[in-house]
Amino acid sequence: MSAEERSAGERAAGKRAADRHAAGEPSADAQATGERAAVARAADPAGPTRVPHTRVPLTRVPLGRTTAWTTRLAFGAAGIGNLYSPVTDEDADRTLATAWDRGIRSFDTAPHYGLGLSERRLGAFLRDRPRDTYTVSTKVGRRLVPDPGATGDDLANGFAVPAAYRRVWDFGADGIRRGLEASLERLGLDRVDTVYLHDPDDHADQALREAYPALERLRTEGVVRAIGVGMNQTAIPTRFVTETDIDVVLLAGRYTLLDRSGLAELLPAAQRRGVSVVAGGVFNSGLLADPRPGAPYDYAAAPPETLARALRLREICERHGVPLRAAAARFPLRHPAVAGVLLGLRSAAEVTDAADMLAREIPEALWEELRREHHTAGSVPAPDRGSPGANP
Question: Is 212 a catalytic residue?
């Protein structure tokens, strides 16, 4: 491939990514803006669904066969990177402090989020906390290159920050190492626990051929403890699970109450290979948090038949006294391959609601009715591996 062809391909891939991000949350990670708005509309922090919170850490689950781990509820930090609208330093710190107070000890970020702002804010918050009490994951594949002549903001890519850098797709071995070194500098850490290849949709062959061996070397050197891939599709992650020795997949939107496509190949393969899955996008852009006409589903208005399914799910949940968003957040945890749920959080109120929903008691009768509704025993797996709540 010529340099001109490669450049054109990267521009096209960048435009597709920008289109996705302009319509919804970065693809492999947290909730979309629609999800956050839906949660805010649906939440009733003063109402009877609120549960007492605890200051002890949530249950920790190992990632693959490594010493890395995730709390069952993990913090997605795209929001504190000014996703779609500004967040002040003070509000970002307050959001992270609330997450810490609620027992969340696993935090996910990326250079892409606010052109490094998310990593810098997260690193500043964690700086005075004992390093062995929390885990951090970040991503590689998009390097940040200074762009001194740029003007304006980065909202075309979804972030309300000055356009001081440009993103360069780079899944080469040297680019992976350089990208991680830059992330460590922004975070102020000497290591991260987990590194994901970030959305290699249009770079799968290079990611398998060059980026994966580079991550494997970093794991061997002890720079990272777990390696994986983060995407909102199942085909390429399944290749990584079956063809490499990755430890974890961050899967966005493909194992939810509305989209069970992860069950076809990826989750069974991960279970066989001892690879953990962290589930993101559990509200499918917002529809499962607040189903209503015009609600987003995977970054576009939900089709009528999909909205009808979501409304039916809400009806079933309400009959059992459970908010739909609580069932949506808990659902992935019932599969033995799923180690945790990653929710994008940008305010203390969102953190509080997320922790409350994960801590709710959900009757087994609800899951049984959902099995019958979908006419597939395997579509709602057996009870999850323990409560998402605090360790004994």
Answer: no
